[in-house]
Amino acid sequence: MPFIDVNGTTLYYQDTGLKDAPALVFSHSLFFNSRMFHKQVERFAGEYRVICYDHRGQGKSAKDTLDMLDLDTLTEDAAALIKELVLGPCHFVGNSMGGFIALRLAARHPELLITCTVLGTSAEEEYKIDEFQPIVEHLQIYGGKPMSQTLIYIMFGDTSLEDPSFANELNFWKDHIEGLDRTIGDAAYQVVHRKRILSELNEVDVPMLAIAGAEDHAYTVEQSNKIAVTVRNGVCKVIANAGHSLALETPEEVNSFLAEHICNSGKYYSE
């Protein structure tokens, strides 16, 4: 299993695809891990060098204290990973928490990115803090198991929750969440108490694709659209039958939008 020491931590990552091709880096949601993008790996590994990694404090990456799990630190982790593996400039994709990191990379390290894609993401402070803070506190005391049903509802849309063909995927992530220890509460705290990034996006000219799920129980379509209209080269796409975890719920649609966005990146820079 590949691990790398960067920015004062140790990150687990998967490196697949063509080693001499442009890199496509995937950054996962809170409560998930790098497996979240297995459908994207299948689609893109034949054309790109595909990197999926676990955030500091999650998955197989090193644990850390609450004060070191903030999004600014995690953004610097991602930047250091890109530099150490000589991936830049790369295409960067983040779902939810991974999207928070992607936006900060685009604003603060644009030289590392060719394109940026965010799924189920907001550039603002948490607007459901009163609803999510009790969940954070419960996670910090008990871990993921008692909250698994609540978290599954937040992380997936109604269509996915009711689709028998999606049951195996749901069960996998339910089991995963139930296995999370109390440290996941610290990662959740930093997500819920993050600072807004919207004002930093005004100067971003990295081509930006924001994909929203119409059934997202965490963030609204308008929050994705606000990202797209704030950056200089942005577009928002909405998937009707998807919730918060778009990379898992509607991989074909996500992959199609992502492939188009990557293909169009040269056009953005030439305009």
Automatic annotation (TrEMBL):
Q: What is this protein called?
A: Alpha/beta hydrolase
Region forming the signal peptide:
none
Domain AB hydrolase-1 stretches:
24-255
- A molecular function GO annotation: hydrolase activity
Q: Which organism is it from?
A: Fictibacillus enclensis
Enumerate the PANTHER family for this protein: AB HYDROLASE-1 DOMAIN-CONTAINING PROTEIN, MONOACYLGLYCEROL LIPASE
Q: In terms of domain of life, where is this protein from? A: Bacteria
- SUPFAM superfamilies hit by this protein: alpha/beta-Hydrolases
Keywords assigned by UniProt, alphabetized = Hydrolase
